[in-house]
């Protein structure tokens, strides 16, 4: 079969269309300067960096924080990984800083992570209570956001506050809901991973994100997997 000039023009038109409509698969939120301070609510947006809607998103929050007053300044005088600080207040908490979730409706707004951390520890002999709510989502204007609310650092006058000296929250759009490991391919690794999550009744197996892990999720996953995306 030969390709005529008209077909070539059509192909070029398709190529131009698809490049102008090229999916924006990532949004990055700069967290530098964000304070972790008692009773201080903050929000950071990726604007003007937008991201397209997709059936699945992977997110990772990474940053360095430093104490800027009180006991926290004594304890963390230089930039320290956020994960290390979270672990010192609530062991295991840093696991929540990265993950992936589906949004089968592939529509914005969407919330990817809504995690409340709470813990208590003793810093230099002082019992300290800590709490914070981290939310990562994409708003209706397609900008990603990170919000830090419900911050409790008690007793705040003694413990002080912290600041992000650097850091980002990065959201990557994943083209296939069945791409469990978010590597861009759908293959046996994804099936095995999903099956292990499902067997463990992990929230990561909640394919349709309705709050339950059951046969519906297995069927939906199998359907997406068979379709190869
Ligand atoms: Ca994969
Ligand atoms: Ca479900």
Bound ions, cofactors and other small molecules, one mention each: calcium ion
What's the β-strand tally? 10
Shape: elongated
Q: How large is the share of residues in beta strands? A: 35-45%
Number of domains: 2
What is the rounded distance between the termini?
30 Å
Radius of gyration: 22 Å
Describe the structure.
The protein has 229 residues and is α+β, with helices and mostly antiparallel strands. The protein folds into two domains: 153 residues, no CATH class; 52 residues. 26% of the residues lie in helices and 38% in strands. It has six helices and ten strands; from the N terminus they run αββββαβαββββαβαα. The strands form two sheets. Strands 1, 2, 4, 5, 6 and 10 form a six-stranded antiparallel β-sheet that branches. Helix 5 packs antiparallel against helix 6. The longest helix is centred in the N-terminal third of the chain and has 16 residues. It is elongated and about 55 Å long. About 5% of the residues have low confidence. Bound molecules: calcium ion (2 copies). One calcium ion binds next to helix 5.
């Amino acid at each position: 079969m030969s390709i005529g000039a008209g077909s070539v023009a059509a192909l070029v038109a398709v190529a131009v269309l698809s490049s102008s409509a090229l999916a924006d698969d990532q949004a990055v939120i700069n967290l530098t300067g964000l304070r972790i301070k008692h009773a201080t609510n903050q929000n950071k947006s990726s604007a003007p960096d937008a991201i397209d809607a997709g059936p699945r998103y992977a997110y990772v929050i990474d940053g360095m924080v430093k104490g800027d007053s009180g006991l926290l300044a004594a304890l963390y005088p230089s930039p320290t990984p956020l994960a290390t600080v979270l672990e010192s207040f609530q062991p295991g908490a840093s696991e929540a800083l990265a993950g992936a979730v589906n949004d089968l409706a592939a529509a914005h707004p969407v919330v990817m992570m809504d995690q409340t951390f709470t813990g208590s520890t003793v810093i230099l002999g002082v019992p300290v209570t800590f709490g914070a709510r981290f939310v990562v989502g994409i708003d209706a204007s397609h900008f990603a956001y990170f919000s830090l609310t419900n911050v409790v650092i008690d007793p705040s006058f003694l413990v002080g506050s912290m600041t992000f000296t650097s850091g980002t929250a990065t959201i990557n759009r994943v083209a296939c809901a069945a791409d469990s490991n978010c590597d861009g391919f759908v293959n046996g690794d994804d099936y095995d991973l999903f099956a292990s999550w499902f067997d463990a009744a992990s929230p990561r197996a909640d394919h349709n994100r309705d709050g339950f892990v059951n046969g519906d999720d297995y069927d939906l996953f199998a359907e997406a997997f068979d379709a190869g995306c």
